[in-house]
Amino acid sequence: MLRARRSERRRRQPPTPEGSLGALPAEVQDNVLARLPARDVVRTSVLSPVWRHRWESVPDLDVDIDIDGVRSWETAVSVLERCANPVRRVSIRGVPLGLAGRADNWLRLVAGKSPRSVSLDLPARDTPAALPSLFSCDPAALAELRLRSCALPAPPVGFAGFHALAALSLDRVLFHGENGWRQVEAMLAAAPGLQELSLKHIVFHVADVGSIPGKWVIGGPNLRRLVLCLSLVGAGSWELGDLPKLEDADVMLNDSPVDRDYDKLFRAVSRVRELKLGNFDGVTYQGPFLTSLLFGFQNLRVLKLDTNFSIITTFVSTFYLLRRAQLLQVLEITNSFRDEEIFQEGVVAGFMLSVLPNSTLWFKNLEYLRMINISCSENEMRFIRHVLHRARNLRAVSVDMFEGSTKTAQEASRELKECQRASPAARISIKHGDSVCNV
């Protein structure tokens, strides 16, 4: 009787995970396993002798490797060698400085697996690791490429480009080939389906000491998101071309050449929904962008801007930009300008007093205002009061004060406490160091 009850219990026990999954057809097993991280798929090898090598035949694995030493690297190489072709995504990061020179060997191995996504984050070093094996990747399969701290030679003769690319991110990448900027132009032109592009601190090799790279154009018929942080010294005189579908742009305006065509730049970003302009105050110091800001930003909903309320040319440019963004919902302003010698507080104040009262349509859709690194000067407070007075849909105002400001958060909050508000329910928070005041 006891033996019979034990047999009955064994029959009623649910099947083991290995048994449940093993009962499925092979193609269904592959589909289930491919949705897991490769590390978890490899662990199925301990389920039973039948499953010891099962993971090696699963296509489209997502291989995410975080290197923490030579042994980890060797394990990662072993896993990649045994993975079935193709792999969906391969990402490697955390590479120790001493192992960075092996990156191309790893990439050669990855290229043989026809990856759809490749991400390689290497440590910065004086001589970045060269990656000629990149061009061995299947151009019809590679849809996402993200590289950091490496070098690319000129592509081999006959290489037509990665025409399936939908996302490209290059950060601190050195182009060794002659006229490397043309190489980037060709890379973009070869990928008409590119939707995301991020170029940060890329550098082009030039033959003559002291010379700078030439002019080149950044464009794309289907580009939707663009991030640019490029310097004149390393990346040359870049310009924005036609970007008809651009929705989100983050552009650092540093090291701008004197002859930059700002009309083209602002025309290219005039249809975006989200826009971030870094160093806007720096480039407008020499003169306002009045003609370049005549384009209507009809779709703009989120604007993040480095500007200030102390230099007349910068504030005038800011005024014209905001004037063209009537549907703005989120505004974030960062002030990083601290040169007391050229402050023009009085001139800016006079301009504000003459134009702000007539700006009745400003901020009618604004919901959130954030002011970062400001000292809560009179001009900055005047601007905040104007927003509070005009923005009927305002939900919150957040102020993060400059640490060196002589004004306290309590003093700033008292100035705004009695301000007439178009939206009485709007929350106001002012932070100065560890002190936070809610108005």
Keywords:
439 residues, alpha/beta, 28% helix, F-box-like_dom_sf, F-box_dom, FBL13/AtMIF1-like, F-box domain-containing protein
Task: Tell me what you see in this structure.
Among the domains are: 121 residues, no CATH class; 77 residues. It is 28% helix and 22% strand. The protein contains 14 helices and 18 strands. β15, α13 and β16 form a beta-alpha-beta unit. α12 runs parallel beside α13. The longest helix is centred in the first third of the chain and has 13 residues.
Strand content: 15-25%
What's the Cα radius of gyration?
28 Å
Uncertain ranges: 1-7, 13-18
- N-to-C terminal Cα separation, in Å? 78 Å
Helix/sheet category? alpha/beta
Q: Kindly state the number of beta strands.
A: 18
Largest sheet: 16 strands, mixed
Work out the helix count.
14
What does this entry show, briefly?
With 439 residues, this protein is α/β, with parallel strands linked by helices. It has 14 helices and 18 strands.
Layout of secondary structure:
Layout: H1 2-12, H2 17-22, H3 26-34, H4 38-43, E1 62-66, H5 70-82, E2 89-93, H6 103-111, E3 117-121, E4 144-152, E5 167-175, H7 180-189, E6 196-200, E7 203-204, E8 215-218, E9 225-229, H8 232-235, E10 237-240, E11 248-252, H9 262-268, E12 274-278, H10 280-284, E13 302-306, H11 312-323, E14 330-334, H12 345-355, E15 368-374, H13 378-390, E16 396-401, H14 409-417, E17 427-432, E18 435-438
Parallel strand pairs: 1-2, 2-3, 3-4, 4-5, 5-6, 5-7, 6-9, 8-10, 9-11, 11-12, 12-13, 13-14, 14-15, 15-16, 16-17
Antiparallel strand pairs: 17-18
Helix pairs in contact: 12-13
